[in-house]
Amino acid sequence: MALSIAMIPLAADARISGKAIRADFHENWPDLPKPVKSDGGEENTIGFAVGDDIVLLGVMPAPIPWGDLEGPCETSWLWPEARKVLREHTDHIIVTVMGDEDPIARAKLLTTVCASILATCEEALGVYWGDAALVNSSKIFQAFTNDSLGDDGLPLYLWIDFRAGLAEDGRTAGFTVGLKALGHREFETESSTDEPGDLRERFFALANYVLENGPVIKDGNTVGGDENEKIRVVLADSAFGNPKRVLRLEYESVKKKKRRD
Predict the structure, then answer these.
(1) Which of 221, 224, 214, 219 is nearest to 246 (CA)?
(2) pTM of the complete model
(3) Is the terminal CB of the chain with fewer CB neighbours within 10 Å at N or C?
(4) How far apart are CA 129 and CA 115, in angstroms?
(5) CA atoms within 13 A on the CB side of 83
């Protein structure tokens, strides 16, 4: 039985209700099996089943270690106040989903459970998605969950960190974190001619494509938005410390047609 885990930082005096969480889950996701209360097995643990999957919420009377949060707070472009807000949290919930489904199905269930916790607990500040070293606020997390999963999409900005920034040579470098946990290779590049925001969007599109279609982007393939853009995909060692081989995007110059007067 495989596990998927996230953590929810809590402000002081938070009250967690398993009954309220189950009710919110059933109301917002009626197409999923109705959650059934089960024994958490330990003190300060809430348990319930969703079909064949087991959900455990462990309420921990201590903050998430700052060493785990500091880096994600610094790079959280969707939650610029993350450092200030999370420095003050006092407790946290470890949310665990156990099941035999594929990793994407488990990630979906984990996401919906986290959204129900956030919706029923005002002191729940956001979500730390450990597989992507990523933090998002309660408001952002609930919005992406409802908008994406409600339309049968994937809330990739909650599952994957799309890092991008300007390199010393004026180009843009970046990489993804989180695709490995979903069963795919990470993407990265050191030679992008995109602006950082555009590179994030490119990574998003590539990640969404492989998650919907399988590992169909291979070593030697070429990707690009139009005929003036050639980006070669190379299976290579990571330039950013990832111990696994990655799909590196190598940007190649393509001479554009001269504009007619």
Answers:
(1) 219
(2) 0.92
(3) C
(4) 13
(5) 10
15 and 133 assigned to the same domain: yes
Question: Do residue 102 and residue 171 come from a single domain?
Answer: no
Provide the 3-class DSSP secondary structure of residue 165: strand
252 backbone φψ class: left, alpha, beta (φ>0; ψ -120 to 50) = beta
Q: Are residues 82 and 194 in the same domain?
A: no
Contact 51, 109 (CB under 8 A): no
Q: What is the DSSP letter of 37?
A: E
E runs forming strands in the chain: 2-10, 36-38, 45-50, 53-60, 91-99, 126-129, 134-137, 161-166, 172-177, 187-192, 222-223, 230-236, 246-252
CA dist., res. 71 & res. 81, Å (int):
13
The answer for residues whose C-beta is within 8 angstroms of residue 212's C-beta and 6 or more apart is 154
Q: Which helix (H) or strand (E) holds 168?
A: none
pLDDT score recorded for residue 1? 83
Give the other-Cβ count within 10 Å of 183's Cβ.
13
In whole angstroms, give the CA distance from residue 201 to residue 221.
19
Reported as a single tens digit per residue, the pLDDT across 48-63 is 999 999 999 999 999 9
Residue ranges of the chain whose pLDDT lies below 50: 254-261
- H or E segment and range at residue 201: helix 196-213
Residues 141 and 168 reside in one and the same domain? no
The verdict on 171 and 188 lying in the same domain is yes
